[in-house]
Predict the structure.
Amino acid sequence: MATVNVYIDGFNLYYGAVKGAPYKWLDLEALCYRMLPNDTVQSIEYFTAIVSARPYDPGLPVRQQVYIRALKTVTNLKVVYDHFLTHSCRMVLTGSNPPKKV
């Protein structure tokens, strides 16, 4: 039996397992205990960034905050905030002669 710390990337969890699924409220504590039944889960850290409202989904930030408030009730779970990086980058368009940057 090992003592473990669990680190969860909220972005990858959402887009890899939750988005499009009928169930949105994932109990992260229960998930950790089921995935590590023979270990002692010392701490769980959930990494996320605050989302913005979208024209097609203005309630997105409210739903995220409700979920985060629920996560904060788990005694050994810590929510860690960061931010999303979004930027444009230029790439070479292949197949043109000479190659063009777009």
